[in-house]
Amino acid sequence: MVKCDKCGVETYMPFKCNYCGGFYCEQHRLPEFHECSGAFNAPRNKVIQYGSYTTSNQPGDYATSQTIRPYWFSKKELQDLAIGIAVILIIPIVRVWSILPKIPLEITGFLITLVLAFMLHELAHKFVAQRLGMWAEFRLSMIGLLLTLLSFILLQTSIFPLMIVAPGAVVIAGLMNWKEYGKISFAGPVTNIAQALIYLIAYYFIPNESVFKNITVYGMAVNSGLALFNLIPFGLFDGMKIFRWDWRAWLGAAIISGAIFFFVWF
């Protein structure tokens, strides 16, 4: 085992920082969480070509060349995505199994909104990171799986109005400054806000007696809640990275998602 250079905790799978060369635990793996002494936020020139990319810092303290395949999924990533989607589907199906034959279309629509909210959020992170020349793949998270299960249980009791859909997250490797970091983080919540707005528009065009009316409400609730949860400006959440990059972008996203969330629940 290796001790984290920040907190001293022993870990079997340490993360090596590309900027300062230190080894860190999962909590302190990112440069901003271990007070990185390397050129983390230094301006640099980057040349990206499909098939390969070269990154160089100024004034030349770090350089790397790496092969990359944009919009490509590894076998491990596809396996983790499949498990994550299965968890998202199985948990609510177990809860509503007894009424599934009575309202199959409504429940199917609800499940589709859940999967799309989760999938498009994570894929947005992945594709933006890859466009910027980073390595990015989805990985399951035990903490995320437990949060997803717990939030769904609490949602049924009306104790906690947010539906957390987070069985995993996109893991990113490569040299990033705060602007790139912010854009990658911003992509996920923006995708959920866009979906929520689409459901909001559809809500006003669908007749009240239609089953699809309820599906639009589900879509707004799930996506606005997921966006708000990820916009929390603390710790490892997207919100902290977005806020440090551009507080105006964070505020705009928080206001829009908060307004839709308020519309649905209040």
Question: Low-confidence segments, ≥5 residues, pLDDT <50?
Answer: 45-67
Instruction: Tell me the Rg in angstroms.
Output: 20 Å
The total count of strands amounts to 9
Q: Which geometry do the CA atoms define? A: globular
Helix count from the secondary structure assignment: 7
Structural class: alpha+beta
Mean pLDDT: 82
The largest sheet is: 3 strands, antiparallel
Distance between the termini: 51 Å
**SS strand fraction:** 5-15%
Structure notes:
There is one protein chain. The chain is of the alpha+beta class. It folds into three domains: 1-38, no CATH class; 41-68, no CATH class; 71-265, no CATH class. Helices cover 52% and strands 15% of the residues. The chain has seven helices and nine strands; from the N terminus they run E-E-E-E-E-E-E-H-H-E-H-E-H-H-H-H. The strands form four sheets. Strands 5-6-7 form a three-stranded antiparallel sheet, with no helix packed on it. A two-stranded antiparallel sheet has the order 1-2. Strands 3-4 form a two-stranded antiparallel sheet. A hairpin with a 6-residue loop joins strand 1 (2-3) and strand 2 (10-11). The chain starts with a strand and ends with a helix. Mean pLDDT is 82; it is low at 45-67.
Notable traits:
266 residues, alpha+beta, three-stranded antiparallel beta sheet, two-stranded antiparallel sheet, 9 strands, globular
